[in-house]
Amino acid sequence: MNSHRVVFRVIEIELGFVYDLFYTKADFIYSPSGGICRVLSFLLTVIGFVGFLSIDKQAYPRVDVSITYVLLVGAIALEIYAAVMLLCSDWTRHWLSKHKNPVVLNLYRAISLFSPPQCERWSNYIAQYNLISFSLKNEPSKWSFLQMALCIRQTMEKHRYKTFHGVTEELKELIFQQLRQKTRTNTTHVNSSFGVWKDLCAKRGQGVLEKEGFLVKFGWSIEEAEFDQSILLWHIATDLCYYDESTVLLDPTENSNFQPNDAN
């Protein structure tokens, strides 16, 4: 995978699987039991609709009959929509892609061909909460009295100094290139691929400090400090250095400001 777009697309799909497992009923929905329940739900809805069509409705008000028709048709439409979404989901495609049966492969191609266009899987925005800005601009809100009366002051203050910035393609490309470069560097002294990623994830900035010749002077902030303390230290340091820079900033430097501010 040489393109950062492909890499981020795969990560989005994998994170979607993890989210479904933790926060939805995907484990049941995409199981044989879930499929049986889905079929039974659709059949029972259709049976109810057919049964309502066949009975004598003269004794019922026309408005009630019309509302019942709308509800039943809506229920059937929702069942069909749910079935289509189920067939076009990443879970179904993943299950079909694992089978080498020609019929299954043709079904997989058909579903991929007629699937509706995928919308963005996430907003492509990153939240930032700058501690220095919070400390310098910590002024009472105009609506503080109303917020206290409604018991929402703490919640509102939490979001008051939060800003959102778009994650550009340039930033994704920068992250991808940096990770690929560091992976290639670690491969020279780590045997297994698992060891490469384990060693890469253990890095907390030592490589940059060592490259710039500041590891002896500032290594304590990474090696001795706790992880949360290290984040706060470098959040403050990089933010001060970022706004103190008087020269024209290049795109990668501007993109780097996403990291230190994301301390929430």
TrEMBL record:
InterPro entries: DUF4220
Keyword Mitochondrion found: no
Bilayer-spanning residue ranges: 35-55, 67-88
Domain DUF4220 span(s) in chain numbering: 4-134
Organism: Parasponia andersonii (Sponia andersonii)
Protein name: DUF4220 domain-containing protein
Keywords annotated in UniProt: Membrane, Transmembrane, Transmembrane helix
